[in-house]
Design brief:
alpha+beta, Immunoglobulin-like, seven-stranded antiparallel sheet, non-reducing end alpha-L-arabinofuranosidase, EC 3.2.1.55, 632 residues, binds alpha-L-arabinofuranose, ASD1_cat, eight-stranded parallel sheet, Galactose-bd-like_sf, 33 strands
Length: 632
């Protein structure tokens, strides 16, 4: 298209401004985005991780039709040293049926009619004798919806696969595996995936949930946290190397949010997801220290920060360098070869890496951050490192973090804040006065406390200020992204879900409208409001950007108040524009919110719009309006 370039140039702003923050919190990964339907497939729930856990957590022992025999958890000659436990079924007499296990997944296994499911496991048999295994999907009343029989045979571990096609849908089915002949069989990695995953990857992601995330059109994806990245102790740091390779060789563990993490959604899958949604990957690694709140002290400023011993920092730093090679190195490099072996010889084009998450600015943290930062800078000068400045928009850690980042000339720092909606309205000017010569900002976590439309509009108003300051705020992501019903540890979140339903919040639709309508140039003066700030909840704010790729000019207008406001718009400066526009409006009652009971209370509407060179637009009460005017 002849791009609307002729008008006076705008301010260059970050082309990567709005992205997403994925943290494995609220069962976002296992039981969530990761499509595995079996809980505790590898029998690695560990009592030392969590008092109530054991290797048979979420499994029931089945003794059907008077079968005789026993079951135990074993660890001799396991499938892999990283996956030390497995189950042994010893059938003395199957009698009419057999002996085995049942798994009801994460709150039940949801089955859809007409869909197929990939079952797999590893097995070995005593002395290599054949053991028939009956595999079934049963509904909550025990009716069999699908079944198949496999013959396990061989004294060494072997993978077995089968496809199951249930005859009916069921919201809360279970998977049953029965050994149905006399003999002994060992089982591990008992797994069930829907055949249809996001972009149809094996070991993939839940398609409906991933699609809702993809529809945000994020420019980047941050992962795997949050606090999860630095863990609640040295043995709980998220170690990327333990999350790649064959899934049966990855290291499962309790995560900082106190549930089990299989690492089935690991670094390869994160990078692959970024590629699928055309977003830049933004991994965050621990800065050689764990969360300062380690040891159960959730008091900010707690003393639990545990540090990688300095003698081990060279190895730790090498792990970070290896991560960059894993993402970007040629397939012939040591770690690039691991990526290629996973099926991706081409690089993932990593540009950003975060070091640290909200860490207390102790001397120990700084020393380790500096070691990692300098090593990355020396070996990979084109990688943009993101530092960290604590968990609040102000305070000691914040000030010290900024001073440290500026001293080291860290390209970006990660700010986090969760505040009342009024705070977001009152602080609309926050970045207007930032020193443009210093480190740039990644607003890595932010949210107003709530999921009402008013919360979402306060965030929208703030996002207009992020666009206005898109030269200094290079990246921004709402947090957290996902939360599973009945397993939500942190509120509010952007998307709620259970096994069958996904509920995008009002806040989601704000993120989506900004995500789908990003630009790379900012223009002031398009409305009389553009440079206004919103000190109260009744002032309309706006921003205007142009997208170089399409030449489209995009105007966003936010009215967090209860009275419609007429705004004059002047597009005369843009010479290459049509009058064809689309108008997206997000509006409802001030306190409306989307819930499982009312998932569609707050939804955007889209309609065609005629945009003259100048026009007046009435911004409805409690609304966000996005007018996208097509370039020629
Ligand atoms: O987003 C939830 C948590 O909030 C993140 O894990 C942490 O970084 C912040 O304190």
């Amino acid at each position: 298209p002849a791009k609307a370039q002729q008008g006076s140039a705008g301010k260059r702003i970050s082309p990567d401004l709005f992205g997403i923050f994925f943290e494995d919190i609220n069962y976002a990964a296992d039981g969530g985005l990761y499509a595995e339907l079996v809980q505790n497939r590898s029998f690695e729930y560990n009592p030392s991780d969590h008092g109530g856990w054991h290797p048979l957590t979420s499994w029931d022992y089945l003794h059907e039709g008077y079968a005789m025999g026993s079951i135990s958890v074993e660890s001799a000659a396991p499938l892999h040293a990283n996956n030390p436990h497995y189950v042994q079924l010893r059938v003395e007499s199957p009698f009419q049926k057999g002996l085995g296990l049942r798994n009801a997944g994460f709150d039940g296994i949801p089955l859809k009619a007409g869909e197929k499911y990939d079952f797999s496991l590893f097995a070995r048999t005593k002395s290599g004798a054949a053991m028939p295994l009956l595999v079934q999907l049963r509904d909550a009343k025990g009716a069999v919806l699908a079944e198949t029989t496999l013959s396990a045979q061989g004294a060494g571990w072997q993978p077995y696969r089968a496809t199951l096609a249930p005859t009916a849908a069921a919201p809360d089915a279970s998977l049953v595996v029965l050994a149905i002949a006399k003999g002994v069989v060992d089982l591990d990695m008992v797994s069930l995936f829907p055949q249809k995953t996001f972009h149809n990857h094996p070991n993939g992601l839940r398609a409906d949930l991933a699609q809702v995330v993809a529809d945000l059109q994020p420019k980047f994806v941050r992962f795997p946290g949050g606090c999860l990245a630095h863990g609640d102790g040295l043995d709980n740091l998220y170690d990327w190397k333990k999350t790649i390779g064959p899934v049966e060789q990855r290291v499962a563990q309790r995560n900082i949010w106190n549930y089990h993490q299989t690492a089935g959604l690991g670094y390869f899958e994160y990078f692959q997801f970024c590629e699928d949604v055309e977003a830049k990957p933004l991994p965050v690694v621990a800065a050689g220290v764990s969360c300062q709140n380690s040891g159960g002290s959730w008091k900010i400023g707690g003393t639990g920060q545990q540090c990688v011993p300095l003698a081990d920092m060279a190895a730790y730093t090498q792990d970070v360098l290896d991560l960059i090679e894993y993402a970007n190195g040629p397939a012939t490099s040591a770690w690039g070869a691991r990526r290629a072996a996973a099926g991706h010889p081409a690089p993932f084009n990593l540009q950003y890496i975060g070091i640290g998450n909200e860490d207390k600015q102790t001397p120990e943290f700084r020393e380790r951050f500096r070691l990692i930062y300098e090593a990355v800078r020396a070996k990979y000068p084109n990688i943009e490192v993101i530092g960290t400045v604590g968990p609040s928009p102000k305070g000691e850690d914040y000030d010290q973090g900024w001073a440290f980042a500026n001293q080291l000339r860290v390209p970006l720092v990660d700010e986090h804040y969760y505040e009342k909606p009024q705070w977001f309205l009152a602080n609309n000017q926050r970045y207007d006065g930032y020193d443009r010569q210093k480190s740039k900002v990644y607003l890595g976590e932010y949210a107003s406390w709530g999921n009402t439309l008013f919360n979402a509009l306060a965030e929208a108003a703030y996002m207009t200020s992020l666009e206005r300051n898109g030269d200094v705020v290079r990246l921004a992501s709402y947090a957290p992204l996902l939360a599973k019903e009945n397993h939500t540890q942190w509120n509010p979140d952007l998307i709620y879900f259970n096994n069958s339903t996904v509920v995008p919040t009002a806040n989601y639709y704000v993120q989506q409208l900004f995500g789908q309508n990003q630009g790379d140039e900012y223009f002031g003066g398009v409305t009389a409001l553009t440079s206004n700030v919103a000190p109260t909840d009744s002032a309309v704010v706006s921003s205007c950007v142009r997208d170089a790729k399409t030449g489209d000019v995009i105007l966003k207008l936010v009215n967090p108040g209860g009275k419609g406001q007429v705004v004059g718009v002047n597009l005369a400066r843009f010479k290459g524009l049509t009058t064809n526009a689309s108008l997206s409006v997000l509006t409802s009652a001030r306190n409306a919110s989307n819930t499982f009971a009312t998932p569609r209370m707050v939804l955007p509407s889209v309609s065609p719009f005629k945009a003259g060179k100048t026009f007046a637009y009435t911004v409805a009460p409690y609304s966000l309006a996005v007018i996208r005017v097509k370039g020629k």
